[in-house]
Amino acid sequence: MANRNYYEILGVSKSASDEEIKRAYRKLAMKYHPDRNPNKKEAEGRFKEINEAYAVLSDKEKRKQYDTFGAEGFRQRYTQEDIFRGFDFEEILSGLFGGRGRREFKFGGGRGGFDFGDFSGGPHGYQDMGRMPQGGEDILYELTISLEEAASGGEKRISYRKDGKVEEVSVKIPKGIPEGKKLRLAGKGMEGKRGGPPGDLYLQISIGEHPIFTREGDDLMVDKEVSFSEAVLGTSIEVSTLDGTKRIKVPPGTQSHTKMRLKGLGIPHLQREGRGDEYVQVIVKIPQRVSEKAKSLIQELAKEGV
Question: Is 214-285 in CATH node 3.40.30.10?
Answer without folding.
Answer: no
